[in-house]
Design a protein that fits this description.
- The chain has 455 residues and is α/β, with parallel strands linked by helices.
- It folds into two domains: 227 residues, Purple Acid Phosphatase, chain A, domain 2 (4-Layer Sandwich); 121 residues, no CATH class.
- Helix content is 35%, strand content 17%.
- Strand 4 and strand 5 form a beta hairpin.
- Helix 7 packs parallel to helix 8 and helix 9 packs antiparallel against helix 13.
- The protein is globular, with a radius of gyration of 26 Å.
- The two termini are 36 Å apart.
Length: 455
């Protein structure tokens, strides 16, 4: 199965001549590649327009969408579009209403509440009215494109290799003219509805314009958990530079292909991606094609050899695992609450202050012998303190010993759990509180009988 992944056209009559030049070069290149192996679908991951105006969309359709469909002999049912921040009409944003949304949408519950209120959501997403009008017209009478809950759409495409299911997510509905990084939202109910709708497809893909680190922390963590749990191929855009990677955690694994851009600019290397994959095969090959303006008067696309040999990156999809694993932020939040419960300084901190583990704890100083002896040896012989994080990473058991209730053992353990989880979230931390003091024999028994896996 072969997918064409393109992004960030930024169509505008202000730069029409330059944009036609680079798109024409891209069309010649994909035509050549399609003769080697036909494309099953085209995925455009956002920023079709420059300013979300109707003139932009008409130009995008004229210079890209229609010629591309003709070049590859594809129906509109096989061309998948999602909005980006440039598809937002900033003139439609009501400043004070938008400020109110920013103040209110600070957790998952508030976001899900808005997504479940159609009239409120329509007002909140009025900035995308131009995009919706264009898509309604573009996909008129296309049966395989269906809404999936609030804001998302699902495309199901029959191929020779099986059914391709694409969850098209909207990360642009909170975009504004300011710096959006860290404040954008998708929303759990949007993502879950779309991901569930493609669960039975042979190949499952999710597309979202913004890379996950552009979302608010709580929302990005939740979306990553959903995507990893489903083991999806995730296609993004926005940052204008190609970056195919794979990530794996205890929740599962995903392949992410961030496509380059398609507008004339020497500030970013214009590029697009060809993605080859197959049902029941975890191998994904991403071939990045980059624009070389110096090779001809109009430039040509060829292998992006600066990224990899032949421009090809081989990646592996993680296994589909059962859902229920908590997002990263929830795990850290739970550990932070435990630290607060045991902290001797937290009671003096204002309740409104958002404290983190790094603010409440300092890295402990540990020795393999009693503290006074260890300190003296360190000063006289240069004895190095042990590195418990390195020991944990090597799969070793770390035991922290103390002789009183206020010696900091609990805080040290919590610091270790949080620090190790930040380094690698492949294993979940487990905090087991004992109601009694343990002797040496108790400790030996616990270690010898410890569970092999804690989740």
């Amino acid at each position: 199965m072969r997918l064409l992944h393109i992004s960030d056209l930024h169509a505008s009559t202000l730069n029409e001549r330059d944009q036609r030049s680079i798109v024409d070069a891209m069309l010649l290149d994909v035509q050549k590649l399609s003769k080697e192996m036909p494309f099953d679908a085209v995925i455009f991951s956002g920023d079709l327009a420059f300013s979300g105006k109707s003139d932009d969309y008409e130009l995008a359709s004229e210079i890209l969408l229609e010629p591309l469909a003709q070049t590859l002999s594809l129906e509109r049912s096989r061309i998948v579009l999602i909005p980006g921040n440039h598809d937002v009409d900033f003139d439609a944003i009501e400043e004070y209403f938008d400020r109110g949304l920013s103040d209110a949408l600070t957790d998952r519950e508030a976001v899900n509440k808005l997504l479940s209120a159609p009239s409120d959501l329509e007002k909140a997403t009025a900035r995308l009215m131009g995009w919706r009008t264009f898509c309604d017209k573009y996909y008129a009478d296309v049966a395989n494109v269906q809404p999936a809950g609030p804001l998302a759409f699902v495309h199901t495409i029959e191929t020779n290799e099986g059914m391709l299911g694409i969850a098209a997510l909207n990360s642009a509905w909170r975009s504004s003219e300011g710096n959006d990084k860290g404040r954008l939202l998708v929303g759990e109910t949007q993502a879950s509805s779309a991901i569930d709708a493609v669960a039975e497809c042979d190949v499952r893909v999710a597309i979202v314009h913004h890379p996950l680190d552009w979302l608010a922390a709580f929302d990005g963590d939740a979306l990553r958990t959903q995507l990893e749990g489903a083991g999806l191929l995730v296609l993004t855009g926005h940052e204008h530079e190609a970056d195919p990677i794979s990530t794996t955690s205890a929740r599962g694994g995903i392949v992410q292909d961030r496509a380059g851009c398609l507008y004339q600019s020497h500030n970013y290397p214009n590029s697009y991606s060809v993605v080859d994959l197959a049902p029941r095969d975890t191998n994904v090959i991403v071939c990045v094609r980059e624009w070389y303006p110096e090779r001809s008067p109009r430039g040509v696309f060829d292998e992006a050899t600066r990224l990899a040999e032949g421009g090809k990156v081989a990646l592996t999809l993680g296994s589909h695992v059962s859902r229920g694993h908590p997002p990263y932020s929830e795990v850290i939040s739970a550990l932070t609450t435990l630290v607060q419960d045991h902290s001797v300084i937290f009671d003096t901190v204002a309740a409104s202050d958002q404290q983190t583990i790094d603010q409440l704890l300092v890295p402990p100083r540990l020795f393999t012998v009693p503290y006074q002896e260890g300190r003296a040896a360190r000063e006289s012989t240069g004895l190095k303190a042990p590195d418990p994080l390195a020991a944990l990473a090597a799969g070793k058991v770390v035991v922290i010993c103390g002789d009183s209730h206020e010696d900091g053992v609990t805080s040290t353990l919590l610091w270790l759990l949080a620090s190790q989880y930040k380094v690698s979230d492949e294993h979940f931390p487990a905090y087991l509180a004992s109601g009694r003091s343990l002797g040496t024999r108790d400790g030996d028994n616990m270690l010898s009988n410890r569970p092999k896996t804690l989740c």
